[in-house]
Amino acid sequence: MSEPVMLFKKPSYPVNKLLLEYLVRFDRLSKVSIFYDDLLRFSGSITVYDKNEQDTLWIRVYYNEYEREEIDLNLKKIYSLLHSDGNLGIIKFLNVDSIDYCTFGNSKPFRIKVRNILNDNYTHFYIKKADASRIYGLELEHILSPDKINFLVFGDTLIEEHIMGIPGDVFMKTLLIDCSETEKAQIAKEFVKFNERCMIRLLGDMRSYNYVIVPTHDFDQVVYKIRAIDFDQQCYEGNFKVYRPQFFKENYPMVKLVKEKLQNSSIEQYKDEERAVLAKRILSAENRIKRLLKIMREDVIAPAAHIEQLRMELYRYTNDLNFKNAKSMGGIMSSAFLFITRNFKTSTLFKNKL
Length: 354
Fold this sequence. Notes:
- By secondary structure, the chain is of the alpha+beta class.
- It has helices spanning 17-25, 36-39, 65-84, 132-144, 168-174, 181-200, 252-261, 264-284, 286-298, 304-318, 321-325, 329-353, and strands spanning 44-49, 55-62, 94-102, 110-116, 122-129, 151-154, 157-161, 166-167, 211-218, 221-228.
- The strands form 2 sheets. The protein has a 7-stranded antiparallel beta sheet with strand order 1-2-3-4-5-7-6. It has a 3-stranded antiparallel beta sheet with strand order 8-9-10.
- A hairpin with a 5-residue loop joins strand 1 and strand 2 (55-62).
- Helix 6 (181-200) crosses helix 7, helix 8 (264-284) crosses helix 12 and helix 9 packs antiparallel against helix 12.
């Protein structure tokens, strides 16, 4: 099958009043007054190379001394909001080691490295231009994925915590070959579930560099999970394949692994398991999901042509009239969640009668 094609660069969509009220309701607003544009006023930069002396496409930026002091203080306050609920007492133990700027990709983020001077532990967070579709993606990730995620919004600025893991493309090139056969089968299972999760919640463009592999040691084995790290393509593209990681050539090693390690019956089983888990999460956070979807239905986060294409492709895929009747990306998302929860309830009822 052909690879999905994304013809145009996605524009940034503004945060409307209803979404802003939602962010206030769920404590997603930053109390620190720093803007993305403030960080653009750097006075110099150098290229950042990796350990193999390869250009990372990040540059390390520098500021005039009189500006750097205020920027550092605000970045430390942001760190405290993300990690200690705004406790300013920790600021004296923090140091902003570096501010890097990415010259590649849609969001062109700043990556902030903050170190605790008492023990040299450090972490990162990112500052980007606020984009409504990215915020919807982050919020859906927080509610529906196995992992929670912290983010804050201030005006037209988005602050995201760093998601730890090994970039998918790096893992495939350097580490996958050394995995045991049992580990490869487990990774294949996780890719099936990740593929299903992205498809159902319409998270697009999950090429290998837009997700990470997270290894966890558990007794005598290593368990692998897959986490999305880029939410730029939430509910934007009209091509349904864009929301299915299996169709990107960058993910071919994962697709090959699935074919080699899993039988069709196992693949269907893992898809069913992921749908059931998603349905349970949707139902357990029903009020919050309904509030978010209502805002999405009234918001404009994709061109009309994309909405028309996607709703018809999903209608042909599911034969569900709710997709055909959807008028917005939020409406398509609502139809997808209804489709999943309805089938889950029907399945559960059937099993209970056995």
